[in-house]
Amino acid sequence: MTIHSVLGLGLLMALGLAGVVFSAGEKLPPGLLASAGFVNLLLAAVGISERRALTRAGAAKSAIESATARAMGLIWLWGAAALVLVYVLVLSWREWTHFSAAFAGAGLLCLGFSALLAKDAAKGRDDATLLRLGRYLGIGQLVGMIATLIGLAVDPDKEIFFATDSDWAGNGIFLFGAVALALVSAHALIDGKKNSS
């Protein structure tokens, strides 16, 4: 990514955060869903596009998986930032600290994993154990995101479309974060399997 792409992506992420906070403050679920959906799906599209470009260019597996882990980390960290801003500035929900800490932890782990893989790629080597671990973590993440989406769909206490309970904003953030992470994970697993055979 060029510096202009990075700055543009950062600006869009910040605008998405502003949209989420404004929508939460005004109790506008469609606005919150649109903001969270736009940013998360944009991050998923960027991650998938970057992976495809690296694959086409014949990049090392470590470099490809590093870019994918970085995209996942950005999705997790954007979700953490959105939760913190919404529940510190606008709404009140007792459990927000647990979820935001978990999101931030997962995001930092993804970025750390990305850095390890990038270090290997810079040295011109692929660590098979690290790549296999990444695949297992990707499978676990995909299963977890599918479970999250099912949970949001079937649990009658999970409000997304109406600003009734205090967790409605968090549920909207969870929804599109889970969709984005599922897309990136599924693409990485399918692409990795296709390119390893």
Overall description:
By secondary structure, the chain is mainly alpha-helical. The protein is built from 6 helices and no strands. The chain has helices at 3-25, 29-56, 61-89, 96-122, 128-154, 168-196. Helix 1 runs antiparallel to helix 2 (29-56), helix 3 packs antiparallel against helix 4 and helix 5 (128-154) packs antiparallel against helix 6. The model has no long low-confidence stretch (mean pLDDT 93).
Shape assignment: elongated
List unreliable stretches of 5+ residues. none
Number of domains: 1
Q: N- to C-terminal separation?
A: 28 Å
Helix tally?
6
Percent in strands: under 5%
Number of strands: 0
Give helix % range. Answer: over 70%
Largest sheet: none
- The whole-angstrom Rg is 17 Å
Throw out a few tags for this protein.
about 200 residues
